[in-house]
Design goal:
Distance between the termini: 52 Å
Number of domains: 1
Strand order of the largest sheet: 6-7-8-3-9-10
Strand content: 25-35%
Radius of gyration: 19 Å
Oligomer: single chain
Largest sheet: 6 strands, mixed
CATH architecture: 3-Layer(aba) Sandwich
CATH class: Alpha Beta
Number of helices: 8
Structural class: alpha/beta
Shape: globular
C-alpha cells in the first residue's frame, strides 16, 4: 500500500510572546491509500495542529510533509492553495454551507476556485453526481434551512468530493449530530472509503472512532498509540440495532 500521506519528523512551534508552544513534536507517520484513520487526543494534545498541517492550512516549523508524493514544504502560497484544492477535501463540524445557496450550488463552490476553468454544465453534472453519492440528489434544489442536520452534513461531504480529492479530512463531523444521524453519516464515510477514498477524521468520540480502520492517539504533541481497530463497527447493522431498540421502547411505552 503506497503512502498518500508521509510525515517525517514534523514539528509545529507557536511563538506566543516570550513562550514557545511546542504543539507537534517530531511526528513521523505514513498513511496508505484507502486507509480510514481516526485521530484522537485530549484538548491541547496537538491533534488540531497536526490536522492543520495535514490539510496544508498551516506550515510545519520543521520536518517534511509529502502529500501524494509532493513535498509540501517546497511550495509557495499559490501552489499550496492549488494542491490543497486538487488533493484534499474538507468536512467540518459546523457544515459551513451558504444559507442562501442551494445544496447543488454549495457543492459546486470548490470548482470555482480551481486552477482549471470548468464549464457550468460540467459543474452541475459533477455536483449532482456527488449529491447522488451521498443520497441527496432529490434535495439538490433545497436550501440549508430546508435540510436536517444530517442532510446538511451530507451536502458538506458531497462538496468535499466534487474535486475528486486523494484525501478527505473530517474534523469532528458528527459533533453536532444525534446518535442515529451520526451512524448514518459514518455509513456514508464507510461507503466512500470502500470506494478507495483515504479518510482522516479528528474525533473525541470513541464510538465514532470505532467505525474507522485505524486509531491514532496524539498526546503532548506526539503519537501515543497507533493501532488497527479490532471488532470494527459497521454502520448498517449498528443503525438497524438502534432502530430496533427505538421501536421496542415505543411498544413498551
Amino acid at each position: 500500500m503506497s503512502a498518500v500521506v508521509k510525515l517525517e519528523a514534523i514539528q509545529k512551534v507557536y511563538d506566543s510572546g516570550e513562550v514557545k508552544v511546542h504543539a507537534v513534536r517530531g511526528i513521523s507517520l505514513e498513511i496508505g491509500r484507502g486507509e480510514f484513520v481516526a485521530i484522537m487526543g485530549p484538548s491541547g494534545s496537538g491533534k488540531s495542529s497536526l490536522m492543520n498541517v495535514l490539510g496544508c492550512l498551516d506550515r510545519p516549523t520543521g520536518g517534511r510533509y509529502l502529500l501524494d508524493g509532493v513535498d509540501v514544504s517546497a511550495l509557495d502560497r499559490n501552489a499550496l492553495a492549488d494542491l490543497r484544492n486538487r488533493k484534499l477535501g474538507f468536512v467540518f463540524q459546523g457544515f459551513n454551507l451558504l444559507s442562501r445557496t442551494t445544496a447543488r450550488e454549495n457543492v459546486e463552490l470548490p470548482m470555482l476556485y480551481g486552477h482549471r476553468r470548468i464549464e457550468r454544465r460540467e459543474m452541475r453534472e459533477r455536483a449532482m453526481h456527488c449529491l447522488e453519492i451521498v443520497g441527496l440528489a432529490g434535495r439538490a434544489g433545497h436550501f440549508p434551512s430546508q435540510l436536517s442536520g444530517g442532510q446538511q452534513q451530507r451536502v458538506a461531504i458531497a462538496r468535499s468530493l466534487v474535486n475528486e480529492p486523494q484525501v478527505l479530512l473530517a474534523d469532528e463531523p458528527t459533533g453536532n449530530l444525534d446518535s442515529k444521524t451520526s451512524i448514518e453519516v459514518m455509513g456514508v464515510f464507510q461507503k466512500l472509503n470502500d470506494q478507495g477514498i483515504t479518510i482522516l477524521m479528528v474525533t473525541h468520540e470513541l464510538d465514532v472512532a470505532h467505525f474507522c480502520k485505524r486509531n491514532l492517539v496524539v498526546r503532548d504533541g506526539r503519537i501515543a498509540s497507533d493501532v488497527p481497530v479490532a471488532g470494527r463497527s459497521m454502520a448498517e447493522p449498528e443503525l438497524a440495532k438502534l432502530l430496533e431498540a427505538e421501536q421496542a421502547a415505543k411498544l413498551a411505552g
